[in-house]
């Protein structure tokens, strides 16, 4: 549709096991979530997102405890 654009998101994971609960969100200037997702499994995946013309931020959220150093 007019005023909308398709974006291709190339999702990558070097471990080959998906993002293990990490998610992404595409957030508009009005703080609304325009799209979200994750890489469920594997080392790569493609997602396509159709967004109206505007400003957006790409945010990532890791699950609680991710990256903690377990001694």
3D structure, described in words:
The chain has 71 residues and is an all-beta fold. The chain is built from no helices and five strands. It has strands spanning 4-12, 23-28, 33-37, 44-52, 56-61. The strands form two sheets. It has a three-stranded antiparallel sheet with strand order 3-2-5, with no helix packed on it. It has a two-stranded antiparallel ribbon with strand order 1-4. It is flat.
SSE blueprint and pairings:
Elements lengths: L3 E9 L10 E6 L4 E5 L6 E9 L3 E6 L10
Antiparallel strand pairs: 1-4, 2-3, 2-5
What are the key terms here?
71 residues; mainly beta; three-stranded antiparallel beta sheet; two-stranded antiparallel ribbon; 0% helix; flat
In short:
This protein has strands at 4-12, 23-28, 33-37, 44-52, 56-61. With 71 residues, it is an all-beta fold.
Low-confidence stretches: none
DSSP, total strands: 5
* Head-to-tail CA distance between termini: 53 Å
Strand order of the largest sheet: 3-2-5
What is the H/E order? EEEEE
Please give the share of residues in helix: under 10%
Number of helices: 0
Largest sheet composition = 3 strands, antiparallel
Overall structural class, as computed from helix and strand content, comes to mainly beta
Coarse shape: flat
Average predicted confidence as pLDDT: 91
